[in-house]
Design brief:
The structure holds two protein chains of two kinds. By secondary structure, chain A is an alpha+beta fold. Helices cover 55% and strands 18% of the residues of chain A. Chain A contains eight helices and eleven strands. Chain A has a five-stranded mixed β-sheet. Chain A has a four-stranded antiparallel β-sheet with strand order 1-4-3-2, with helices on one face. A two-stranded antiparallel ribbon of chain A has the order 5-7. The longest helix of chain A is centred in the first third of the chain and has 56 residues. The mean pLDDT of chain B is 87. In chain B, β13 and β14 form a beta hairpin. The chains are: A alpha+beta, B alpha/beta.
Chain lengths: 419, 228
């Protein structure tokens, strides 16, 4: 949910509460005021009736002639003058011809030794009507407020939040691998300014740390390979300087092989580090058909040398998001494994469709459980000299590109990658 | 051949020079970009072996500055510990002729230098002759006593590699790496090397050539000239 929608919702919620309370207050105020006004009106009416009573009693006119819908005068035999009493009563409405709540003022007057009870009725505004009107007013006001809140909110927040959204935009496009510092828009809003300053600082630091990490792994690789090159070269000079005894030749050769293994290990680890550092662009669109076909061509000879029977089923135009370099390492490793873990005269079959890639090969049942297959340095007993990194690299590459990798063994080794 | 080695590591440059001198080349060393620039300004070299990570800069910068001034007679081979595809691509784009990652076999370096030299220097015939064997690298053709010998691509590469490194012991591992590059696992490829050599020997013998290849204690092979 967007920030704007959320704040608008809260504002509306608060308005509902305020309008609710406001409605109750308005209702009470209005009905109080109306009954006060009605009572006042009845009071003044009573005053006029008092004066008329006095003059009529003086001139001996029949006071009951004053009786009407609203006024009812009754002569009492005798009585005590009491204060006027206001009360509510049900009475027949003169025009509507139905019972309505009326305000009633009852007073007892003693004029010229006679006692009169004066009852005055007046139609009052019904509570229901007040209630209805208040609700009507409140809902209309609320609708108006809501409308303005939504429209006004959208306009104001678009204006106020513009620097924030543009910061969000820049953040989306930010790359820790890149050298471009994150440029953030200027703003005079304190909080956004703070946010931008913080972001600029943190992204700058992240980039610097990324660069130093990258440089470190590059240097580490360089520092490892250079002494290896020296040792390797010295051994080669020893070989060509000869003559050595058979034993010495064999030792030199073994030493060279061991060095070669370290060097390859270093290179493999450096690739893993680079994948971890996300130094490769995974969004490259790569023609996988081309990569796999090239592998088939490169390895065809090696298949032949181990008398392996290769069957291929490669769709012509498979293209996915895959870093080209990593893709070629991945397929190379898989083809490589299909030879290494195969038996003389065995089978390899490769299939590539738009749904995925699959390579199966004959071979001995793995000595390790299936789940450990993709771990680093997971070596099969038959191959103590293998680096144990080939499948681990394939796994990392698949994870990096969010491709599903699976291995299974049932008579044949099967590695499949779902695109 | 006159070679300039640009390499900051003293030990490595000393050994490389000693190997190249054994091969009969005149070899000079520059340890920094500056030194290399001075030498390149004063002398002409057939081949420059260029390390990328140098104390006072990158070999790439040297390449960038030098290449436009070069009249095409100098071959440039990058020797780097960085096995980065991007570096390889950048280097070749900047005009380097070849790229070899450390650690490398001297025999491999030797083959590459010779191939580079052949491509650069002789505008006429690039042919290599070794006793009765004649090789045309451009056409990838081999003949013995003027009779063509049908070799596969790998067998051809193998023969050229042996001739470039005659009288040297080439270990199976170095041969495998020459034929299949870094990506090949030496365990299996040793058998593959054996098979290729067996086929090569058979084909050469059938064409009437002497067998110059000999196995050295099972670790590798050596091509001996008839005289030695």
């Amino acid at each position: 949910m967007r920030l704007l929608s959320k704040t608008t919702m809260f504002y509306l919620l608060i308005s509902v509460v305020v309008f609710g309370i406001g409605g109750i207050v308005a209702y009470n105020l209005i009905s109080d005021e109306i009954s006060k006004e009605t009572d006042y009106y009845l009071d003044t009416l009573l005053d006029r009736i008092d004066r008329r009573l006095e003059s009529w009693v003086e001139r001996d006119i029949d006071v009951t002639r004053m009786n009407s819908d609203r006024v009812h005068i009754l002569e009492l035999p005798s009585g005590v003058q009491t204060d006027p009493v206001f009360s509510d009563t049900l009475a027949l409405h003169p025009y509507l011809n139905q019972m309505e709540i009326m305000r009633k003022l009852t007073a007892v007057r003693e004029i010229g030794g006679r006692t009169f009870q004066v009852v005055i009725n007046d139609v009052i505004v019904e509570k229901d009507d007040i209630y209805e009107s208040v609700v009507k007013i409140i809902t209309r006001l609320f609708a108006l407020l809501a409308l303005f809140l939504v429209i006004g909110g959208a306009i104001i927040s678009r204006y106020l939040m513009r620097p924030f959204y543009s910061t969000l935009d820049r953040m989306d496009g930010f790359e820790v691998q890149g050298n471009e510092p994150m440029t953030l828009p200027n703003t005079n809003i304190k909080e956004f300014k703070q946010l931008n300053q913080f972001l600029a600082r943190m992204t700058g630091r992240a980039q610097a740390e990324y660069q130093s990490l990258k440089r470190f792994s590059e240097n580490a690789s360089h520092e490892l390979q250079t002494p290896l090159a020296i040792a390797h070269g010295k051994l080669e000079l020893l070989l060509s300087g000869g003559p050595l005894s058979e034993e010495q030749y064999k030792n030199v050769d073994s030493a060279q092989q061991a060095l070669s293994r370290i060097s390859k290990l270093g290179k493999s680890l450096s690739i893993l580090t680079k994948i971890d550092n996300q130094e490769f662009d995974p969004s490259e669109e790569t023609n996988v058909t081309e990569l796999v076909t090239r592998c088939v061509e490169d390895f065809r000879e090696l298949f032949g040398l181990k008398s392996l029977n290769l069957t291929t089923d490669i769709s012509p135009t498979v293209s996915i998001k895959l870093n080209r370099h990593l893709g070629s390492i991945m397929f190379n490793n898989l083809f490589h494994n299909s030879i290494k873990h195969n038996v003389e005269g065995g089978q390899v079959s490769v299939s590539l469709t738009h749904e995925g890639f699959e390579i199966t090969n004959t071979g001995h049942e793995p000595t390790r459980p299936r789940t450990e297959m993709f771990q680093r340095f997971a070596k099969d007993n038959g191959h103590p000299d293998s680096s144990g990194l080939g499948l681990a690299i394939v796994k990392e590459i698949c994870d990096y590109h969010k491709l599903d990798l699976d291995y299974s063994f049932s008579d044949v080794h099967k590695v499949s990658i779902d695109f | 051949m006159k070679i300039l080695l640009v390499e900051d590591n003293l030990e490595l440059s000393k050994d490389t020079v000693s190997f190249l001198t054994q091969e009969g080349h005149i070899c000079e060393v520059a340890h920094t970009v500056r030194e290399a620039e001075d030498k390149l300004a004063d002398f002409t070299y057939d081949v420059v072996l260029l390390d990328l990570m140098l104390p006072d800069g990158s070999g790439m910068d040297l390449l960038r500055n030098y290449k436009p001034r070069d009249q095409g007679q100098t071959g440039i081979l990058i020797l780097s510990a960085k096995d980065d595809v991007q570096d390889r691509i950048d280097g070749l784009d900047l005009g380097a002729d070849d790229y070899l990652t450390k650690p490398f076999h001297y025999s491999e370096l030797n083959s590459r230098i010779k191939a580079l030299y052949r491509r650069r220097q002789f505008h006429g015939s690039h042919k290599i002759t070794y006793e009765e064997i004649e090789i045309d690298p451009d056409q990838q053709e081999v003949s013995v006593h003027d009779e063509p010998v049908p070799l596969t691509k790998k067998e051809f590469q193998l023969l050229v590699h042996f001739i470039a490194n005659k009288n040297r012991i080439l270990t199976k591992q170095s041969i495998a790496e020459h034929l299949w590059g870094d990506h090949v696992d030496y365990l299996d490829s040793h058998d593959f090397v054996y098979q290729h050599i067996k086929n090569l020997r058979k084909k050469l013998a059938k064409a009437g050539a002497n067998d110059y290849l000999s196995n050295v204690y099972g670790i590798g092979y050596r091509m001996k000239s008839a005289a030695s």
